[in-house]
């Protein structure tokens, strides 16, 4: 008997058998069917990535993207769409190059990218000997003489042993963020870091760095691909190597920009559930997985709720945040406005881990609410969503935590994300239609449950 | 307190906290670390796909692949490597084309592929009117006159509503397998089917069809891509459309070929645990996900067990089966030999669902053994493996079920597989290094547990 039941199980993965509640289970299936059959997220993402492409804060492309988001939210059936003002930093890259020269005396170019927010060399060649360290502890052991006037190369590798690549990213990210500040304080001319990448290719990855307030020298910071990093380390073990860096990146004055917001009005009250993601991207690739995917998923939720005629109790608001990548100004401004308008927020969920197959949700909320969300696990299992253990939420919605808003983030499969993240490889062809729509599906399902129960 | 525990959880995803048994948990981590840090599966797959490429049974490329497998098994440290004789069918494709002509009177070409094992038109044009049906029920309603001398077009779509795409594949596969036989019996000249594909592109997918023993007319069967299929259906609703098919595919005589086997000897006894996959592929793409991935994963298990010095109780045998795609002769011959040699088999696991992130295992075994494997779930959770509910196992190891051998199949994430399966798109660049190695990791972990406990 039991054996027979097990045989039948796969046929029921549509949701009936696992469900705690048939009505919820059927609504889950309605949401899934609507998105998988009629979803527009994939074609919207094609449009955003192919016709606008990457869209760094303050760029003309970003401004185009805000108009695009307004149009798409209206097309999806939003009751109300608007742009929310926010001052954003404007970082510009310009031309850049990195050459190295070892014992053979010949300069050769490496693929490289300046780190976001970094200052450049103002178009002049900065030439110095490269000093290699594996990590911060090794760096701290160096004498000042060994650092002064040199270019410091940090080759801290992405730890492949972490099963969730987000943990490896977290582990290594201090080098991208802080290496220039560490080395600048001790008189170095520039830093080169190994890209935060799970791939073993030669693609350089950018991403945010920052100088400390008390940094007197804002030295340039650049990244090279893992292959170049390994080769450079190997050469440095037997030879002196010199680098010649030439770059033009710099931080300009802040500029007026916009987050884009669309909502469907609540049928019971005006309190708000946010589905968020960020509209800006780095100035490389197409910003497809980071975070075009989150944008089109959020819009898909609004579209499908409208198409299904779901009578949401609370207002469901899609927020396309400005400037997540190099400032988080959109998220901070949004929270400020919420406070000023005294808007009640029931819940906020973000998608900023890529449009890969969903595996779970990170949750930041009270133990009681967390337990309640976890009690819905059986409803999500037929959709492959099983992990509700992580405690994290999206960066853009993070500032809402101050007001006690329960937060979540879609937790997609993490294996492919950091191969392409913040690089020229983050392009539309890396996104799978079904994976993207399944992510939107389970976010929609979670919003449905919270809208009904909170 | 509980809140704090939850905060800490992600840090322990390496395996300690979830483990039932610290020793097993540590061994799981050793296997994972060894593969993720030193695994050769990805580079082996690059070699197989780029230097040999696709390798249909009976082809010169397949014979090259058997030598390749022998070399790789030796390199991995197998105690014993051999080729096992098996007679395989030899199907040859040759040149092929499909043109259609509607009311405008102009012939235009469609991307197409003959289905595997199909007979062709012997290089002559076969021209006829196309008759469209959506499914078998519609076909059955047609009069004999409506079928006789026509080319029947079955446009049964891959059902996007199934969350596990394997179910959609199972649902639609009868059209690929049997349509030519249905239509041939009723006097049709040929059949065109919509490819079994989860993508909405225009890539045609091949795959096995078969004629019934009592089929008098072996009519040609070809597939077109989903886009062409939708366009053709649309045109057929308002206009007559004619097709002109020209193909040369045919079945030749059987040929002597080989499965390739390598093993590490058991320390306790000579009973066998099989890690299997198939070495052959269709004659399109590079046979990367289907099933080069499974081959290099199986070899990786042997390599890592040897590298870690795990003292396996039972013999661990990697079987690279011949001819899964269009005959299953390798699997059937292997089972026959097991019976003849009276070899005891403890367990067999196959990887033939692609080298995507592992999600679980399909299990075919007694309820008691199934329950025991499911009791290990907590050990696998830190590796993202959560689903032990499916009841299926690999095709190649299937014939071992007759002898009561407990069987399993790796169940990877299914979203991307049928976009590329049996098509020109099944190439190395579709495989992710970490996903591939994680699949090998969890197969190795399952083998470790069974070797220890059974």
How would you describe what is shown here?
Two copies of one chain form a homodimer. The first copy, chain A, has two domains: about 1-90 and about 255-454, Aminopeptidase, CATH 3.40.630; about 95-250, Glucose Oxidase, domain 1 (3-Layer(bba) Sandwich), CATH 3.50.30. Chain A is about 35% helix and about 20% strand. Chain A is built from 14 helices and 15 strands. In chain A, the strands form two sheets. An eight-stranded mixed beta sheet of chain A has the order 3-2-9-5-6-7-8-4, sandwiched between helices. In chain A, helix 2 packs across helix 9, helix 3 crosses helix 9 (about 290-310) and helix 9 (about 290-310) crosses helix 14. Chain A is elongated. At the A-B interface, helix 1, helix 2 and helix 14 of A face helix 1, helix 2 and helix 14 of B.
Could you give a quick summary of the protein structure above?
With 454 residues, the first copy, chain A, is of the alpha/beta class.
């Amino acid at each position: 008997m039991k054996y027979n039941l097990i045989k039948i199980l796969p046929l029921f993965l549509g949701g009936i058998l696992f469900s705690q509640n048939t009505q919820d289970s059927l609504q889950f299936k309605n949401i899934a069917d609507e998105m998988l059959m009629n979803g527009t997220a994939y074609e919207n993402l094609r449009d955003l990535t192919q016709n606008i492409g990457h869209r760094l804060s303050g760029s003309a492309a970003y401004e185009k993207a805000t108009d695009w988001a307004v149009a798409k939210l209206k097309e999806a059936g939003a009751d109300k769409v608007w742009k929310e003002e926010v001052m954003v930093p404007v970082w510009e890259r310009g031309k850049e190059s990195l050459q190295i020269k070892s014992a053979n005396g010949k300069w050769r170019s490496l693929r490289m990218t300046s780190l976001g927010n970094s200052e450049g060399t103002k178009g002049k060649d900065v030439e110095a000997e490269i000093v290699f360290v594996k990590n911060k502890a090794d760096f701290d052991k160096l004498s000042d003489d060994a650092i002064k006037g040199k270019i410091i190369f940090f080759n801290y590798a992405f730890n492949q042993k972490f099963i969730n690549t987000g943990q490896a990213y977290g582990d290594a990210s201090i080098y991208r963020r802080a290496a220039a500040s560490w080395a600048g304080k001790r008189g170095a001319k520039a830093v080169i870091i190994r890209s935060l990448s799970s791939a073993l290719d030669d693609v350089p990855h950018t991403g945010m760095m920052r100088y400390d307030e008390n940094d007197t020298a804002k030295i340039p910071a650049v990244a090279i691909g893992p292959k170049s990093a390994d080769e450079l380390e190997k050469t440095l073990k037997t030879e002196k190597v010199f680098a010649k860096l030439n770059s033009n990146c710099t931080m300009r004055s802040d500029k007026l920009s916009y987050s884009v917001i669309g909502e469907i009005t609540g049928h019971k009250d005006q309190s708000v559930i946010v589905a968020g993601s960020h509209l800006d991207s780095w100035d490389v690739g197409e910003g497809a997985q980071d975070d075009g995917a989150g944008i089109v998923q959020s819009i898909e939720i609004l579209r499908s709720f409208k198409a299904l005629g779901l009578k949401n109790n609370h207002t469901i608001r899609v927020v396309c945040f400005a400037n997540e990548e190099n400032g988080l100004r959109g998220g901070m401004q949004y929270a400020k406005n919420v406070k000023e308008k005294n808007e009640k927020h029931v819940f906020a969920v973000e998608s900023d881990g890529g449009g890969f197959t969903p595996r779970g949700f990170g949750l930041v909320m009270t133990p009681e609410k967390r337990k309640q969300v976890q009690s819905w696990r059986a409803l999500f299992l037929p959709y492959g969503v099983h992990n509700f253990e992580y405690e994290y939420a999206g960066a853009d919605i993070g500032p809402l935590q101050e007001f006690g808003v329960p937060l979540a983030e879609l937790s997609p499969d993490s294996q492919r994300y950091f191969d392409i993240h913040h690089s020229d490889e983050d392009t539309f062809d890396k996104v799978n239609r079904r994976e993207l729509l399944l992510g939107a599906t389970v976010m929609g399902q979670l919003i449905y449950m919270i809208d009904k129960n909170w």
